Here is the input.
Amino acid sequence: MSTLRAAFLSQADSCEALESPFMGRLLRLLADHWPKDTALAAKCDTFVGDIDSKGHSLPLRIAGGLHALALQGKDAGLTTVYPPNQTSNEALLEATLKALHTHGAFLTDWITHAPQTNEVRRSAVLIATAHLLADRFGLPIKLSELGASAGLNLMFDQFHLAIGEGYGPQSTVTLSPKWSGPFPPRTELTVSNRRGVDLNPLNSADPEDALRLQSYLWADQEERLHRTQAAIALNTAELDQDDAITWLQGRISAPDANELHMVYSTVAWQYFPPDRQKHGTTLLETAGAQATENTPLAWLSYEADDNPHGAALTLRLWPGNHTLNLGRADFHGRWVDWQVPAKLP
Here is the structure.
């Protein structure tokens, strides 16, 4: 079981590996100088179970709350030491400790909610997969996202993927991952229906929810912030608040003719309880057994596995019950190692 100090240090390593040196600095300072006399520290002591990134993610909750204060301008000292401003560790520590003492009520409330992000760059994989499916079946695509957060990645057909000759419309959201492997086929893509589910869906049109989305982006990654803001402006996806597997059962129970159903999750399924994962798998396999060429079902998983190098991309496809390795991708979508043939079986 991680101590809070160990959780800070582990998260610092992860943030630095994902090209956020500021987060690394901040979390290491918190690890070494955590103010145990604050209301926030007392609140953190009440969490039971894992507090690191595979559990409650307390370091990210705390950092998100501090970033929210800086984004809102609620703490002038904190805003002064946050990017794009450059400052010393001493100044960053002083401002952070002051904020932790001053904004105890805000921060203790903030960390009661789990971190929620919508990493838009993951849509590069969704775009590529949808083009594969459109090329194979030639049908409009119904989208169902499990663990959709604010639903930004349900809008992937409105983004531009800048690889090869480019995919999708010219857009205020452009994705430019480092791409290795063959390019997906260039086919017309039609999304006929899009909907997502989350235990705590965020309404990106609501200022408080939009703030939460942006606060969990890292302050020295300005490009991510701008991309997310652009995606928020495009977002029209409909979301439901529910258990993802309960929702999925209703969503796949009556397939529409001449429509491909693409069910997917991006770094969300891995957080579902094991019994819900098992039930969800059974639901999809049962529905897949009934799929036809006119009602195909595709299940895309963009999730962590035992390989620490990014996330595994796995596509299950019916009819035929095919399981395809599509390669791997960075958790933040910075790179994609695409290993799929140009056409699907």
